[in-house]
Design a protein that fits this description.
Structural class: alpha/beta
Distance between the termini: 28 Å
Helix content: 40-55%
CATH architecture: 3-Layer(aba) Sandwich
Largest sheet: 7 strands, parallel
Radius of gyration: 18 Å
Shape: globular
């Protein structure tokens, strides 16, 4: 299938590993030029070289902490200098750490809001003028299935990500007349470094080994397996394409059927 996005330009946030990296790789395979970023300069340069080995797209690797407004502004400035215009924005910034409710301080809530919601808002505000001018754009937020089914112990994610979802839906209405779509993808349990951290935390608190926990998770998923990063990046690539031009304001889970909702 020709997705008609060859030559488009994308910013893919938090792309040194996990879901962000997988999204960047899949977009590059479709001929999309990339600005990728991470707080870890060495890791993001390694990803840049990996992508260069499989694609001839233009790619710039930028060191940026997405909790910093200054770094976000610099990320956008460097991306614009190299790519000239931004057509696709993949908002991604990992996820808040697991906790019990009583463990959380006011600072924890403020940090989660800044990291998870404000990074998406700030970058979207910077990229939308190009998209409006070109009458074409894609904003895709990587969220979590917790917006469909709250996950035990993920109070920050369960709460703040719902705010991102509401903002994205409202934004999709506002920018639809400009040919811009705004969608959110909601991964379930997926094999990433973050899931490894969560499993380690659960193992420590329950005394169960990690293999037992993984098996228990898979047994509760209708498809009987934990997801792969490519399961999500395939959807991201499609939503970024011309083929998805009439799909906007959506929150689509990729979770093997684990969410117990109809919407």
């Amino acid at each position: 299938m020709d997705l008609s996005i060859k030559g488009k330009n994308a910013i893919v946030c938090a792309s040194s590993q996990g879901l962000g990296k997988s999204a960047a790789v899949d977009l590059a395979k479709e001929g999309v030029n990339l600005a990728i970023c991470s707080r870890n300069k060495e890791k993001i340069n390694l990803v840049k070289n990996e992508i260069k080995d499989i694609s001839d797209v233009k790619i710039v690797a930028i060191e940026a902490d997405l909790s910093s407004k200054k770094d976000i502004n610099n990320l956008f400035k460097e991306a614009k200098q190299e790519l000239k215009t931004i057509d696709i924005l993949i908002n991604n910034n990992g996820g808040p750490p697991p906790s019990t409710f009583e463990e959380l301080s006011d600072d924890d809530w403020q940090k989660a809001f800044n990291d998870t919601m404000m990074s998406a808002i700030r970058l979207s505000k910077l990229t939308l003028p190009d998209m409006k001018k070109n009458k074409w754009g894609r904003v895709i937020n990587i969220s979590s299935v917790s917006v469909k089914t709250p996950v035990n112990g993920l109070f920050l994610s369960n709460s703040i990500r719902m705010g991102v979802l509401g903002w994205a839906k409202a934004l999709s209405d506002e920018v639809a007349p400009y040919g811009i779509t705004v969608n959110t993808v909601c991964p379930g349990t997926t094999k990433t470094e973050r899931i490894e951290d969560i499993l380690n935390a659960q193992s420590k608190s329950t005394g169960k080994n990690k293999k037992e926990l993984e098996e228990a998770i898979a047994n509760n998923i209708p498809m009987q397996r934990i997801g792969e990063a490519t399961d999500l990046s395939a959807l991201i690539t499609f939503l970024a394409s011309e083929k998805a031009s009439y799909m906007t304001g959506l929150a689509v889970q990729v979770d093997g059927g684990s969410a117990r909702t109809f919407y």
